[in-house]
Design a protein that fits this description.
Largest interface: A-B, 45 and 61 residues
Strand content of chain A: under 5%
Strand content of chain B: 15-25%
Number of strands of chain B: 12
Structural class of chain A: mainly alpha
Helix content of chain A: 55-70%
Order of helices and strands of chain B: EEEHEEHEHHHHEHEHEEHHHEE
Number of helices of chain B: 11
Order of helices and strands of chain A: HHHHHHHHHHH
Oligomer: heterodimer
Distance between the termini of chain B: 29 Å
Distance between the termini of chain A: 36 Å
Radius of gyration of chain A: 27 Å
Strand order of the largest sheet of chain B: 6-7-8-3-9-10-12-11
């Protein structure tokens, strides 16, 4: 009883006597919740908010483009080719076939965003599945899955995308497939390392001790802690994906003319770079703005999701 | 012996073997972890738990003490089935854990654990009432009821539900979090609670409060505790019996008062004398225990404690001392305490023996 006399003065009754379990009062202060806190922090981050605004604006323009383009993006005019920016008819100039650049840029956002974002979403689903499985089960399952994934890291991602697209043939669908294949290993590796880390936490052991099945533990205890960091990583891949997708179109492996797509436009305007460099640079500027916006937004998301210990 | 009929404390359906049957019997439990030595080298094993024997009686608190790395926590994880043991037996109320009579899932409903790291043992994305309600929900309790039970448990461990139930772990202090962990362990109405260094990370004053809470809860819920600690003061305070572990084995086990007042094993004696004395005149002058524990990959032959022991003799280097009874309740694994062992300090055998 030495301890009681040395270090335990009469404050000890703090936990109450042997009274029966008191009825829990109903009123309680609702907490904001984890995602509520993330949203709150994100709203106070001006850079992330500006980036989100730019992204939303571009997505909205792209979606509405069939109705709001000032001119027909497909109709060319042989006499009004390569007009400069600020032209009376063509606000942002015209391309090498005399089509309105502004209309084509607005319209081009649809395909560019589609083939930029879709592979990341697909890779997020597939890669998270592989990585979480490998990380949670561990052992030889982890070894087999992750060493297979490692094979893909032997190739630079640009080369891998070109090789796959080349093998599958040109087209929107094929370029989405090849870009998905490029991103799955990267996301799987992040997912695996995050899951391995979470898996060793005591609360996962505690959940096992409560008799929960593996699926329940994954769903309730692991997923919420793992998906956040993977999601942040995936958003940072969107800009890479857009650039790669444009690259494939530039090389003739993605979208086919005359469809407006920023990468493809950059390719076809390449010949005009000495005649009218400002117009030729416009699709590149569009890619740049969108990808840097996604990057800035994912940075903001990352810092908003940091949990203070 | 049968359970007292109509016993007000223990429902007869749960208590199968009666009060004389140990709640948990750990029999020659072994766990070796393989490690690779060098590049392509031979495989070695860490003998983390190497033949651990003890029993936990119903309603008692058994303390397990020992230096870091002696296998205390591994033993706890083996008991809980978080890692699989290599050999040996675990009997819960007379039934083998994992057998048909007592599947692991049923055993886990009756045994819970409180971990040392109060932060890592709570899901940071879950409210604390959600964490406590998780276990009952897994066992089929409705969400509303589970949350209600979580709140009344929170109140019982001294956390006002209206203030704390909807909070997240990082909004609580270490002591508050450990109370939450205790409430979570109790949510499944266990019979045995394993406390793995559950109070070691807390401030002394908070530690005392949580210890008192644990003692109250034990009374109220008829619990049995396995209390793992390296703090002998705490063990003396809360435990009925103590098991002392060294390098993956139990070297002494007996009533806490006896073991900690008159230790039979020289290792226990060294542990006790390594505690700083409150009396400045009785300060320890010589380091009671020099050096680190030997490598559990290659434990010394004979008695594992002999390289650091003050009573070492030639016989200790060759003979493994068995964990033999000193009297009815006190057992020790030391040749110097065992008759006919060949050690010069060994007691002369009694005539009856």
């Amino acid at each position: 009883m030495a301890l009681a006399t040395q270090t335990a003065p009469p404050v000890l009754d703090i936990a109450g006597g042997a009274a029966p379990l008191p009825a829990a009062p109903d009123a309680f202060v609702p907490s904001r919740g984890f995602w509520g806190q993330v949203g709150h922090k994100l709203l106070r981050d001006p850079v992330a908010m500006a980036a989100a605004f730019v992204i939303l604006a571009i997505v909205a323009i792209a979606l509405l483009s069939p109705w709001i383009t000032p001119m027909d993006p497909y109709r060319g005019s042989m006499v009004r080719r390569l007009r400069p920016i600020g032209d009376a008819t063509y606000r942002l100039g015209s391309d090498e076939l005399g089509r309105d650049m502004l209309s084509r840029l607005m319209m081009g956002g649809r395909l560019s965003l589609f083939i930029g974002v879709t592979p990341v979403i697909l890779a997020f689903i597939i890669g998270s599945g592989i990585g979480i499985l490998a990380g949670y089960v561990g052992g030889w399952v982890n070894t087999v899955l992750m060493r297979t994934v490692d094979v893909f890291f032997a190739f630079p991602s640009v080369l891998l995308a070109i090789a796959l697209s080349g093998a599958l043939g040109a087209g929107v669908f094929n370029s989405i497939v090849s870009l998905t294949c490029v991103f799955v290993p990267q996301i799987a590796r992040v997912a695996e390392s995050v899951t391995t880390q979470i898996r060793s936490r005591d609360y996962v052991d505690a959940a096992r001790l409560s008799g929960a099945s593996t699926l329940t533990i994954l769903r309730v205890q692991v997923l919420g802690n793992v998906l956040g960091p993977i999601f942040v990583y995936a958003t940072s891949l969107i800009s890479v994906s857009m650039i790669l997708a444009s690259g494939l179109s530039f090389l003739g492996l993605g979208v086919k003319p005359p469809e407006p797509e920023w990468g493809l436009m950059l390719n076809t305007l390449r010949t005009a770079i000495y005649v009218n460099p400002m117009v030729a640079a416009l699709p590149g500027l569009a890619i740049f703005i969108v990808s840097i916006s996604f990057n800035l937004f994912s940075d903001g998301l990352r810092s908003a999701m940091e949990v203070k210990a | 012996m049968s359970a007292p009929i109509g016993s007000p404390t223990v429902p007869p359906a749960r208590d199968r073997g009666g009060p004389a049957q140990p709640l948990l019997t750990v029999d020659r439990l072994v766990k070796h972890f393989p490690v690779k030595k060098g590049f392509g080298g031979t495989r070695a094993v860490v003998r983390a738990v190497d033949g651990v024997d003890f029993e936990i009686l119903k309603g008692e608190t058994l303390g397990v003490v020992g230096e870091s790395g002696c296998g205390k926590s591994t033993t706890a994880k083996l008991i809980m089935g978080l890692i699989r043991h290599d050999s040996g037996d675990l009997l819960f109320d007379g039934e083998r854990i994992g057998s048909r009579a007592l599947p692991l899932r049923d055993f886990r409903a009756q045994t819970q654990m409180v971990f040392q790291d109060s932060y890592s043992s709570l899901n940071p994305r879950m409210t604390i009432e959600g964490s406590i309600a998780f276990g009952p929900q897994v066992h089929g309790v409705g969400k509303r009821q589970a949350i209600e039970r979580a709140r009344s448990l929170l109140a019982r461990v001294g956390l006002e539900p209206s203030r704390f139930a909807a909070r997240y772990p990082h909004e609580l202090s270490g002591g508050q979090r450990q109370r939450v962990n205790i409430a979570r362990a109790l949510a499944l109405e266990p019979r045995l609670v394993v406390l793995d260094e559950a109070v070691s990370a807390l401030d002394k004053s908070v530690e005392a409060q949580v210890l008192n809470l644990l003692m109250d809860l034990k009374q109220e819920f008829n619990l049995t505790y396995l209390f793992i600690s390296h703090d002998l003061n705490v063990v003396r305070f809360i435990c009925d019996r103590v098991a002392v572990m060294y390098l993956g084995q139990v070297v002494e086990i007996g009533p806490a008062d006896t073991v900690l007042a008159a230790p039979a094993h020289p290792y226990t004696a060294a542990l006790l004398s390594s505690m700083p004395s409150m009396d400045p005149d009785a300060r320890t002058q010589v380091a009671p225990l020099a050096g680190d524990p030997p490598n559990p990959i290659n434990p010394p032959p004979g008695c594992r404690f002999h390289p650091r022991c003050t009573l070492v003799e030639d016989v200790c280097r060759g003979t493994v001392p068995p964990l033999d009874a000193l009297d009815a309740s006190h057992r020790v694994a030391c040749l110097a305490r065992q008759p006919n062992s060949g050690h010069t300090l060994a007691p002369t055998p009694t005539v009856a023996a």
